[in-house]
Design brief:
Layout (H helix, E strand, L loop, with lengths): L12 H8 L5 E5 L5 H14 L8 E5 L2 H14 L7 E4 H12 L10 E3 L1 H14 L9 H13 L4 H8 L3 H19 L2 E3 H14 L1 H10 L2 E4 L7 H11 L5 E5 L14 H4 L1 H4 L4 E5 L7 H11 L20 E8 H15 L9 E5 L5 H10 L4 E3 L9 H14 L4 H7 L9 H14 L3 H6 L1 H5 L3 H20 L5 H11 L2 H8 L2 H22 L5 H9 L14 E5 H4 L4 E6 L16 H15 L2 E15 L2 E4 L4 H5 L5 E3 L36 H13 L13 E4 L3 E9 L2 E6 L3 E6 L5 E3 L3
Parallel strand pairs: 1-7, 1-8, 2-3, 2-6, 4-5, 6-7, 9-14, 9-16, 10-12, 10-13, 11-12, 13-14
Antiparallel strand pairs: 14-15, 17-18, 17-21, 18-19, 19-20
Helix pairs in contact: 1-2, 2-3, 4-9, 5-6, 5-8, 7-8, 9-10, 9-11, 14-28, 15-16, 17-18, 17-22, 22-23, 23-25, 24-25, 25-30
């Protein structure tokens, strides 16, 4: 082994120890801002560079695409080039395994991944068909129950056995059973299935498990405190052979128990892996001393945690500002005023974040920031990829890849309008069921098309013809060519243009911007339609955060995990809101809320401001409030501004420097400059799409041509709509002349 000590000179003692500990189970307790990503990436680089481990023998899994991408970039930077290793999210890693072995579980390898919006549509249809009262059984509640069951490996049958046959249990059983049937029929999996089916695959086929156990000699898991039961089983199964498992996490940042995260996974790691080494990373490189002291004074009240305390070599910094507002409007006014005041010439709007407990709190901040012309962005609201027009086109693209995807077909069957109402759609679905074939196959039958109205029959014929054509030719086309073709030939783009109003233009802008997403994917070397669709499906809220956008960030505390900002505002510090009333009903609930408060505090690098409202109206109800338990737990010496009311037996402190009544600085004005009309750019993009509608060029044997995907080639033969081309690099290809992106090269 050749050890380069200089490579680790910037790491602290504990970080270096973690990097050099490569054999056996290892738990790295990495506090907020303690450089865990740097430690993990140096450890991977050390294994490859100094220990001679092949990159493909290492598996590194995390939770978000953003984290996985950052880790990969850092590893490649340390190794001076790309590496052939799996640095993926849990879902992406499981998806990659299932793509190769799905047939073991009765799926084809081209199965579709349903995102939460798709799953909601499936359950909604089931609830309607089963005549279930949606008010009594909300769709989100049913989906949550199904997800909980899958995370605990409870099938519909075992659910009935375990929970009995009462009315409520019977409804959940029926919906769950139908839901599983619909997904399997559509050759589709939801996010939970990606994890659960991989575990089932390992249990069902020992040879497959052995293959991956032998391959992955070293396993690293990021954010281990957030793993659920199935993720724990997945990791443990892979680590059984070599036991070289390194998990990195912080029990103080376990804030997702409400969606399945099991804190016992990290607390019991030493029991699960006897002989495990534990290394604590406690030096913080993000926040000032006062911010860290405030965070510790709160989190130290939790009983279920491993002992540790963050420290920093940086200055103590400014104390935490506290403002007790009259009501939620005064609270929002104060925060907007402070942001306006603090955003000086050497600061940008993106340096500021407002982190709240619930999405319902955001409205007042949006209004207050707007009144001051302060740009802002809500992260975790309606995501771009969940907008109707984007979902529609993604459904079209899914059908090109997987025609058996009934959910996608039902979504776009009458989008744009084709004269197929709900009654006709239900009859067609029932007919497909009677014929025991996919809805796509039923609709492709000319006799079925003839049975529809003249308008609907013609429209369905054209739709099936378009989808079949692009499905058959998908290997010969760029994703952008497929997308533009679908926009044109399905009539979707024309329908929006014919609306001739602001709504139609706005939706069209979104669709044209989606072309940028596709182009960016292709520029990065992406060439796979299934991979692209998976990438879209697996995006998360944090992946939707663009740190380069110069705007104040508004987001929930849960969405903020993993991020950092120079200035952080934490509003709503009141009992009943944060912590919520339900959380105070149980010690576990209160401890998780306390961890969430700890996460919020440690997002701040330089300044932290907490606020509360004496009287708050939320969800249409108004009431007087008491300051948060977490404020009262905080060391009063760390606070300036308004005093926090304490019980008589607790330490009292009066008002310090009053942060109020600042003179209004010059209001923010948008940056000038002629950037052109967005509609001009939209018009240019529209013309580019429409240009692909023109008739195919006349070709003959001997013509030299250029293809968007395959490059230059020579036409060998033309037979009807089939063009045979010998490409310089791709070899002989037979293409459909009417959609092949061919251009004749003039001699």
């Amino acid at each position: 082994m050749t050890q380069n000590k200089d490579a680790f000179s910037h790491l602290n003692k504990e970080q270096r120890e973690a990097v050099l500990t490569t054999e056996g189970p290892l738990l790295i307790l990495a506090g907020a801002g303690s450089g865990k990503t740097s430690t993990m990436t140096h450890r991977i680089a050390h294994l490859i560079k100094d220990e001679g481990v092949e990159p493909w023998q290492i598996l590194a899994v995390t939770f978000t695409n953003k984290a996985a991408g950052e880790m990969r970039e850092r590893v490649e930077s340390l190794l001076d080039g790309p590496v052939n290793m799996w640095i993926l999210t849990f879902h992406a890693a499981c998806l990659r395994i299932l793509r190769r072995h799905a047939e073991v579980l009765g799926y084809s390898n081209s199965f579709t991944v349903y995102d939460p919006v798709d799953c909601k549509a499936v359950v909604k249809a089931i609830v309607k068909e089963e005549k279930i009262d949606e008010k009594q059984f909300p769709i989100s509640s049913l989906l949550g129950k199904i997800s909980d069951c899958k995370e605990q490996e409870i099938t519909p049958q075992t659910y009935r056995t375990a929970f009995g046959t009462g009315y409520r249990e019977d409804v959940i059983f029926r919906v769950y059973e139908r839901y599983e049937h619909e997904l399997k029929k559509n050759n589709a999996m939801d996010f939970d299935d990606l994890l659960l089916n991989t575990v089932r695959l390992f249990e069902r086929d020992e040879a497959v498990l052995d293959q991956y156990q032998r391959r992955f000699r070293y396993i690293m898991v990021d954010e281990y405190q957030d793993t659920n039961h199935v993720q724990y089983k997945f990791v443990r199964a892979l680590a059984e052979k070599h036991r070289n498992i390194c998990v990195v996490g912080d029990d103080d940042q376990c804030i997702y128990q409400w969606r399945g995260a099991d804190i016992t996974n990290i607390l019991d790691f030493e029991k699960d892996f006897p002989g495990a080494k534990v290394i604590k990373l406690e030096q913080n490189y993000r926040s000032t001393g006062n911010i860290l002291a405030a965070a510790h004074s709160v989190i130290a009240n939790n009983s279920r945690r491993k002992a540790k305390k963050l420290w920093t070599s940086a200055d103590e910094g400014q104390k935490i500002t506290y403002y007790r507002a009259e009501d939620e409007k005064d609270e929002a006014r104060y925060i907007a005023q402070e942001i306006d005041r603090l955003c000086t010439i050497d600061r940008q709007w993106k340096d500021f974040a407002v982190l709240y407990r619930t999405n319902a709190q955001s409205r007042n901040f949006e209004e207050s920031l707007s009144r001051r012309d302060i740009p802002y962005r809500v992260v975790g609201g309606v995501r771009y990829y969940e907008r109707k027009e984007i979902k529609d086109l993604v459904a079209y693209m899914r059908l090109v890849e997987n025609p058996d995807d009934e959910l996608s077909l039902l979504r776009i069957l009458n989008e744009p309008k084709r004269g197929i109402g709900n009654t006709t759609r239900d009859k067609l679905t029932a007919l497909a069921g009677v014929r025991q074939e996919s809805l796509f196959r039923t609709l492709s039958d000319p006799d079925v098309q003839d049975g529809l109205s003249a308008k609907a029959g013609k429209a369905v014929h054209e739709l099936m013809e378009t989808l079949t054509k692009y499905h058959d030719e998908r290997a010969n086309l760029l994703i952008s060519d497929i997308y533009d073709g679908l926009l044109n030939e399905t009539g979707y783009m024309k329908a929006l243009e014919d609306m001739n109003n602001v709504e139609g233009d706005s939706r069209l802008e979104n669709l044209l911007e989606f072309r940028t997403v596709i182009e960016d994917y292709q520029k990065e070397g992406g060439d796979s339609l299934p991979e692209f669709l998976e990438k879209i499906a697996l995006l998360s809220d944090i992946d939707n955060h663009d740190p380069s956008e110069n705007a104040v960030v508004l987001m929930t505390l849960h969405s903020a995990k993993g991020l950092e900002f120079p200035f952080v505002f934490m509003p709503g510090m009141e009992d009943g809101l944060f912590p919520g009333w339900r959380a105070q009903d149980s010690p576990d609930g209160l401890e998780e809320e306390r961890r969430l408060c700890y996460v919020g505090i440690t997002r701040a690098k330089e300044r932290l401001c907490m606020t509360s409202a004496s009287y708050r109206t939320l969800y249409g109800k108004g009431s007087y409030t008491r300051e948060s338990t977490f404020l009262r737990e905080m060391d009063p010496k760390l606070l300036v501004g308004d005093g926090v009311f304490q019980k008589r037996e607790e330490v009292m402190h009066g008002r310090s420097v009053k942060i109020d009544g600042y003179s209004n600085p010059e209001p923010y004005r948008p940056f000038g400059g002629n950037i052109g009309s967005p509609y001009d750019r939209m018009g240019s993009a529209k013309r580019e799409v429409h240009a692909k509608k023109k008739a195919p060029i006349a070709l003959a044997a001997g013509d030299k041509v250029f293809h968007n995907k395959f490059g230059e080639g020579l036409v060998i033969e033309v037979s009807g709509n089939v063009v045979s081309v010998m490409f310089d690099k791709a070899g002989l290809k037979k293409l459909a002349a009417d959609i092949a992106p061919l251009k004749k090269i003039q001699e």
